[in-house]
Amino acid sequence: MTGDATGPALETRGLHKSFGGLSVTANVELRLERGSRQALIGPNGAGKTTLIDLISGTLAPSAGQVWLDGRDVTDLPPHARAQLGLVRTFQINQLFAELTVIDHMLLAFGERRRRGRRFWRPLGADASLLDEAFALLETLRLEDQALAPIATLPYGRQRLVEIALALAARPKVLLLDEPAAGVPAAESHVILDAIEALPEEIAVLIVDHDMDLVFAFARRITVMAGGAILTEGTPAEIAADERVRQVYLGKRRHG
Length: 255
Hints:
Elements: E1 10-19, E2 22-28, E3 31-32, E4 37-41, H1 48-56, E5 63-68, E6 71-72, H2 78-83, E7 86-88, H3 101-112, H4 127-139, H5 155-168, E8 173-177, H6 188-196, E9 203-207, H7 211-217, E10 220-225, E11 228-233, H8 235-240, H9 242-249
Parallel strand pairs: 4-9, 4-10, 7-8, 8-9
Antiparallel strand pairs: 1-2, 1-3, 1-5, 5-6, 10-11
Helix pairs in contact: 3-4, 3-5, 5-6
């Protein structure tokens, strides 16, 4: 089935997941429009990570469907979804401490071009890969750290490298699972700047507990509680919603 250029970038239909008799997501209907900037928030145990795992294919649903670009991808594994444009980052970074930033980028681009396992030919010998890698690093202001081993970078910069790797896959939909997790407050603006600078054509869904980041970034916010969607709206609507205040925001105030 080919993509539907007029429909949403991502959609879940009646998505449900249970472990034994415990339901962790229940009839989740989430719609992510093309080019959207959306956030998913909720208290611990609300089902947010499970939902991201279901969308990305890490978990198989007990019922329901995941649609990407007008195509049912429910039965596809994570790597197949990534090839179709559904890419995610993780709460805990997946980087190799001893490799440099450019090493990571070349491996990511090589994998996208189906060269990831051809180690007999040095990836760095491909000028087009190098050009593309450095161009992407420049967009995230990482070009000065290209030759630095990951272990030498501040944690905020490591999270930027993960975003760069996700962008290397040329996503249509980008799921950012707590991109600011573990990042010192003094560096969190670097993450926000990078997210705000993402290409407009990419639909972005961010999951994070950093409400300053969420309310600064998102044009729409979806709130989960008890494994289901409680409500959805603009940042102003969510901040004013008494139900959201009771289950999550408390007395936080956002403009």
